[in-house]
Amino acid sequence: MVAAIGWALTHLLSEARERRKEVRAQIDKLFEQLYKIEQDARSFHCALQFDTAKAGEIDAKIQIFERSINRVPIFLIDDLAPYIIRLRRAVTLRNFDLSAFTPQSQYSDILQDTFAASQDAEDEMERQYRRRYSSTFPFFRMPSLGVWRGKPQA
Amino acid sequence: MIMINVAQQFSRYPAGRFVQDGPYSGEYFRTKFLAPALKAEEKVVVDLDGARGYGSSFLEEAFGGLVRLGFLKDVIKKKLEIRATNSSLKLEIDEYIDNAVPGGL
């Protein structure tokens, strides 16, 4: 009986650790995507000429980033949506059209806004990860008997 | 009711704010698709899925521009339904409609 309980507990903790590692890997990939978006935004806005292809790539990357976020099972999408909006807006609302493009300096407010939006999105994803997976033993939070807050993942 | 699928009926690569920015701008989408549909129909469903991403300047001009064109915000909100797997798009569009100034820039 003790052995069975011990086995079950070990198995449970092992499974929890594996899920945590998978989620961590997904989130680390999202951080990489975010970094690339920021780099692309920087090179786009600082270029001497408007680059239509680059603008399209940036739109696509932000869309892919949001789709990737939707696939992380622990995320509350309603809480992350404002950060995605802020990132997309920072990069693609101003200076993102042929008729209104001017080369930006490295210190322009567009790039500063982009950096801030990227950092805040990263912090929110990390916050949601830490809410689900504690940094202390047993390294995950037991779900409450109530319903999860926010929109359930598909 | 009318359904507008942006990727299939307009472009998979919508981009730019004004018509001088390119062939699939927010201004062109509003002028040729959105505004006529809102004038003619009681319900307009815009499906944003399938396109290769949307820039905020496109969204702001297409949807916020409706208010500048003279459409009442209440009427837009009542008639317009946005469908998008990426939920942030709908929220962003709602903000542009709410924040647009009638007759403004």
Characteristic key phrases:
heterodimer; A: 154 residues; mainly alpha; disordered C terminus; B: 105 residues; three-stranded parallel β-sheet; globular
What does this entry look like structurally?
The complex is a heterodimer of chains A (154) and B (105). Chain A is 68% helix and 0% strand. Chain A is mainly α and 154 residues long. Chain A has one domain (20-132). Chain B is built from five helices and three strands; from the N terminus they run βααβααβα. Chain B has helices at 6-10, 26-40, 56-69, 73-79, 87-99, and strands at residues 2-5, 44-47, 80-83. A three-stranded parallel beta sheet of chain B has the order 1-2-3. The interface between A and B is medium-sized, with 30 and 22 residues.
Oligomer: heterodimer
Number of helices of chain B: 5
Strand portion of chain B, in percent?
5-15%
Derived from helix and strand composition plus strand pairing, the structural class of chain B reads mainly alpha
Q: What is the typical, i.e. mean, pLDDT of chain A?
A: 90
Give average pLDDT of chain B, whole number.
95
In total, how many beta strands of chain B? 3
| Distance N to C terminus of chain B | 30 Å
Question: What is the percent of helical residues of chain B?
Answer: 40-55%
The largest β sheet of chain B comes out as: 3 strands, parallel
Alpha carbon gyration radius of chain A: 20 Å
Number of domains of chain A: 1
Strand order of the largest sheet of chain B: 1-2-3
Number of helical runs of chain A?
4
Question: How much of the polypeptide of chain A forms β-strand, as a percent range?
Answer: under 5%
Order of secondary-structure elements of chain A: HHHH
Low-confidence stretches of chain B: none
